[in-house]
Design a protein that fits this description.
- This protein is 31% helix and 24% strand.
- The protein is of the alpha+beta class.
- It folds into two domains: 8-143, Fructose-1,6-Bisphosphatase, subunit A, domain 1 (Fructose-1,6-Bisphosphatase, Chain A, domain 1, 2-Layer Sandwich); 158-265, D-Maltodextrin-Binding Protein, domain 2, CATH 3.40.190.
- A seven-stranded mixed β-sheet has the order 4-3-5-6-7-8-9, with helices on both faces. Strands 11-10-12-14-13 form a five-stranded mixed β-sheet, with helices on both faces.
- Helix 4 (175-184) crosses helix 8 (257-265) and helix 5 (193-201) packs parallel to helix 7 (221-227).
- The longest helix has 22 residues, at 8-29.
Length: 266
């Protein structure tokens, strides 16, 4: 049996709470920025700080207060109510390396999934005050003091494209495909984590290809990219899945998706 649709009024309530959770995370994160905060290493050797942990706890508190029956999956504190139809997915600081080194190209991610489908996503940069809000079937909303307008740049040729990824180190056995893509692209830049996807939604970047994403890395980004007229898929062109292999592609102009995937596949 198909699941009933979610009413617009419910979506509006979900968005309001997602933004409240982003506000709560930002209030924790800002005092730590450029404070000389130290970091611990997790089991996968990725860094984590008191800001990551405190921000996720603040986000969870907001979500539990408003929707106690919803599920929550967070990078730092795991799963709550795993069988719930509606599940929040949190990354309190996506780009902890940038945060630790004082670069404002990280963000807090809040997503709401209906089953496996992301229906709400917020990318929040708590230091610059920029925020992208994506809702399935709606145009992405953006606010920020640096300017920018939502919408992917018209760019039908990879030769003219701005290509980006967080780091080429992530590609491992997929490096050859990435090298083919960089050879075809107009220009390549590195760094940015979720912030780069926000820039793609503003038409500043045309293509992003990455290879080691977890669900908390991409769940909030999908509605933002697609609400800006772009596409985000795995390297086979299929929707991203929680049990997928972590390889993801985002394009601002949908015409770039097929040639990008062809080069990555070889």
């Amino acid at each position: 049996m198909d699941r009933p649709d979610i009413a617009d009024r419910d979506l509006a309530a979900f968005v309001a709470v997602a933004e409240a959770a982003s506000d709560a995370a930002g209030a924790v994160i800002r005092p730590y920025f450029r404070s000389g905060l130290g970091a611990d290493l997790k089991g996968d050797q990725s860094p984590v700080t008191a800001a990551d942990r405190g921000a996720e706890q603040a986000m969870r508190a907001v979500l539990v207060a408003h929707f106690p029956d919803h599920g929550i999956l967070g990078e730092e504190f795991g799963t709550k109510n795993p069988g719930a139809r509606l599940r929040w997915v949190l990354d309190p600081i996506d780009g902890t390396r940038a945060f630790i080194t004082g670069r404002p190209v990280f963000g807090s991610l809040v997503a709401l999934l209906d089953g496996d489908r992301p229906i709400v996503g917020v990318i929040d940069q708590p230091v610059t005050g920029e925020r992208w809000v994506g809702v399935a079937g709606q145009q992405t909303r953006f606010r920020g003091s640096f300017g920018g307008k939502v919408g992917g740049r018209a760019c039908s040729s990879l030769e003219q494209a701005e290509l980006s990824c967080t780091s080429p180190e992530m590609f491992g056995n997929n490096l050859t495909g990435w090298q083919r893509l960089t050879a075809a692209a107009g220009r390549t830049s590195f760094g940015g984590d979720c912030y780069a996807y926000g820039l793609l939604a503003l038409g500043q970047i045309d293509v992003i290809a990455e290879a080691d994403l977890k669900i908390w890395d991409w769940a909030a980004i999908v509605p933002v990219v697609e609400g800006a007229g772009g596409r985000m898929t795995d390297w086979d062109g299929a929707p991203l899945r929680a049990d997928g292999d972590g390889r993801a592609v985002a394009v601002g102009d949908p015409a770039l998706l097929a040639p990008t995937l062809a080069l990555l596949a070889g």
